Amino acid sequence: MKKLICLIAVLALAAPLCAGEYVNFKATNNNDGSFTISYAVQDTVGDGNDVLDGTNPVGIGLKVEIISGSADIMSASNASANFELYPDYYYSLDDAARLLYAIGDGHPIADPAGNPGAIDLGVGVSAASICMARVEDGVAGPNPGPQSDSLITLQLQGPDWATVKIDLDDDRGGVVGSQLMTNLPITIPIQACWGYPCFPFGDANGNGIVEPAEIVILKTAWDSGVYDIKADFSRNGSIDPADIVGLKNGWDNGCP
């Protein structure tokens, strides 16, 4: 299978190799059903070369998968302004649209099966690739990105917890630049938002308002002793007095 390397892979090969550095990726749980992927370049041997030109990423290709639990990846936001070229999105355009394309147009979400092209998250997917490249003064790499950066935020939808795996997407070049090592793969547990779009706390039935029906849903869960994420207004993983406070806050802010 032909590899879709993030446009600037060939140029990136000109950067010096620094075996003492690696890209440390991190996934941060935002406690609202979403998580943010970030990275930091670290010097693993103490040689002080982790800030040299050419050692930071020029392009990034990642694969994100739900490996356990029940959830879908529903949306992406807050893509880094430092990696504003999206090769798969450009590839998906027809010839006329490509003539109008400007750096920063589109999004970095791509087909996780390795096929070139962007995918739509609107229907929810269990896996997605991220392909984004660095551009400086309108010219693709080898202009390295920053030593650390927040790359993108992904929103999950599902009835309960899910485990997300983040790994290199080798079909898209992985981390493009002079890096030889990363800490990938990594995993993170996320309590997915139970409805889509993620309804505000207090809206148990997902109709967009906080009303007496929510009191019934909370009382039913409370009386039964069976955990119901829809009644977990505090999102703390249990049905307890904190949910009464969460419902009251929703009622005060959202009841018409």
Write the layout of secondary structure elements.
Layout: H1 9-12, E1 21-29, E2 34-43, E3 59-69, E4 72-77, H2 87-92, H3 95-100, E5 109-110, E6 127-133, E7 135-136, E8 139-140, E9 148-157, E10 161-168, E11 175-176, E12 181-182, E13 186-191, H4 212-224, H5 241-254
Parallel strand pairs: 1-12
Antiparallel strand pairs: 1-2, 2-9, 3-6, 3-10, 3-11, 4-9, 5-6, 7-8, 10-13
What does this structure look like?
The chain is an alpha+beta fold and 256 residues long. It has five helices and 13 strands. The strands form three sheets. Strands 3, 5, 6, 10, 11 and 13 form a six-stranded antiparallel sheet that branches. The chain starts with 8 loop residues before the first helix and ends with a helix.
Sheet bearing the most strands, described? 6 strands, antiparallel
Q: How many distinct domains?
A: 2
How much of the sequence lies in strands comes to 25-35%
The CATH topology assignment of the largest domain is Immunoglobulin-like
| Architecture per CATH nomenclature, i.e. the level-2 architecture of the largest domain | Sandwich
- Global Rg: 21 Å
Extract low-pLDDT stretches.
1-19, 50-54
The secondary structure category is alpha+beta
Sketch the topology as an H/E string, one letter per element.
HEEEEHHEEEEEEEEEHH
Overall pLDDT: 79
Q: Based on DSSP secondary structure assignment, what is the total number of beta strands?
A: 13
Question: In whole angstroms, how far apart are the ends?
Answer: 56 Å
Helix content, binned percent? 10-25%
Instruction: Just give the CATH class of the largest domain.
Output: Mainly Beta
Q: Note the overall shape.
A: elongated
